[in-house]
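Reviewers asked in the last cycle whether our approach scales beyond single polypeptides. To address this, we selected a multi-component target totalling 221 residues and predicted its structure end to end. The input consisted of the following lines:
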Amino acid sequence: MKKRKNIITIAIDSPAAAGAGTVAKNLAQHYKLFYLDTGKLYRLIGKMKISNKNTNYKMIKYKIKNLKISDLNKIELLNNKVAASASIVARDNNIRSIVKNFQILCAYNPPRNFKGSILDGRDITSVIMKDAMFKFYITANLKVRAKRRFIEFKKLKKKTSYNQVLKSLKKRDNLDKNRKHSPLKRTEDSILINTSKLSKKACFLKIKRIIDKKLNINGNI
Ligand code: C5P
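The resulting structure, written as structure tokens, was:
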């Protein structure tokens, strides 16, 4: 595959609800990058499995081949049940292979009107964008993450309790970190950002400073 030259590439890995999605969106807007939340691909497949137990690889391939980015913004993908199902399908290496090409295309051949790409997920720094220009591992302690996710769910009027969210995140952390294929881990060349005590703005500015330094951008954008 031909890769677009001279583009900015940012890879982020993180456990769930650590703030990676928010900061990735802000960075995408700021640097005019194409953003892909790769967890949504697994959520979409997780949702397919919930709707139809007999969903097979052929059906998943078809879905991913004909995927529109707007399919990933559906609110039905944002709940504990779909997240849990996503974490289960994500252990299957055949499924990971099916979504790999789509991710690589977004990473290295983003649409021309973007100056580059930013992807977040669990295996972006270690598998999908090994040679990204910038690599970050974003994390926060479990209770902080559970609280943030619980508040998000409340805003979306989803019925759940803090304890349920905490339990679900803990279980997913375990599954994602200890699976055989593409487990969540911090690669040696990823910069660690702990957002437990950082506001969204502080997190954005911290990462922006690192990026601007390398890109040699001065000024107060
Ligand atoms: O990021 P999000 O919480 O939406 O991800 C849902 C699930 O998808 C994760 O718990 C993980 O199991 C899986 N995932 C993955 N690899 C990625 C992104 C997400 O295995 N790159």
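Residues 17 and 145 are 5 Å apart (CA to CA). We regard this as preliminary and will revisit it once experimental data from Aim 1 are available.
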